[in-house]
Design goal:
The chain is mainly β and 229 residues long. Helices cover 5% and strands 45% of the residues. It is globular.
């Protein structure tokens, strides 16, 4: 069982009466315990290899990364974490594993979106690949997502992965949070709330700066699998 933690004065939010009321239902974080790490996916499908693995060091804190229904679209949020493709190598990403948890409800997500951004001075920049409405294997909010024929090919460079769950919200399955990694790999994780419902970071910012003292991290938990040449 998780314990929902609301963001309040820690991030010095200036919420209106309406948004403050909504914030009592829509939370930025779900604070639980280290048992979430047991939900991480570590198997590698036949013929694939692990390209990036930071699916460990679970803090027990999950940060919302979710598309809600239209009535709650102001709370649509994204987390993102960076990775690099080495020089002289091409990657084909075929599988994305991400450790997460449901809170304010028990799910499940209807589907997941995978987005890849180019790096822009240490934050997500131009969107270069997007695969929407994939239905991964769901282990209590941890997803193993097979991209199938929509595998993503990347040349040498610095990139950002964003995983977003499609889930209506409180009263209709709840919220989905992406578990954070206690160890920083490369740049710290990023986050944004495009609709402004949470009152912070309508554009990409460093996740811990956006979330405040509850933004334990500093990275997200994920694993990329595929082929390289």
């Amino acid at each position: 069982m998780t314990r929902t933690t609301l963001l309040a004065s820690a991030a010095a939010l200036a919420l209106s009466t309406t948004s403050a009321s909504a914030a009592s239902h829509f939370a930025l974080t779900s604070k639980g315990s280290s048992h979430f790490a047991l939900h991480a996916v570590h198997s590698t499908p036949r013929g694939l290899r692990t390209l990036v693995d930071q699916n460990e060091n679970d803090t027990g804190i999950a940060i919302v990364s979710q598309n809600y229904d239209k009535s709650s679209a102001q709370y649509d949020s994204q987390g993102a974490d960076d990775f690099s493709v080495p020089k002289g190598v091409t990657w084909v990403i075929k599988d994305v594993d991400v450790t997460g948890v449901y809170f304010n409800g028990s799910g499940p997500a209807t589907s997941e979106n995978i987005l890849i951004y180019a790096d822009d001075h240490g934050l997500p920049g131009e969107l270069i690949a997007e695969v929407e409405n994939l239905k991964g294997d769901d282990n209590l909010g941890s997803f193993s997502i097979d991209l199938g024929k929509k595998a993503i090919k990347l040349m040498h460079g610095k990139y950002w992965l964003s995983v977003v769950a499609n889930l209506d919200g409180v009263g209709n399955g709840g919220q989905w949070g992406w578990e954070t990694n206690a160890v920083q790999n490369r740049k710290p994780a990023a986050w944004q709330n495009q609709g402004g419902g949470f009152g912070v970071c309508q554009t990409w910012g460093v996740m811990q700066n956006c979330i405040g003292s509850y933004g334990e991290g500093p990275d997200f938990m994920f694993e990329l699998k595929g082929k390289k040449s």
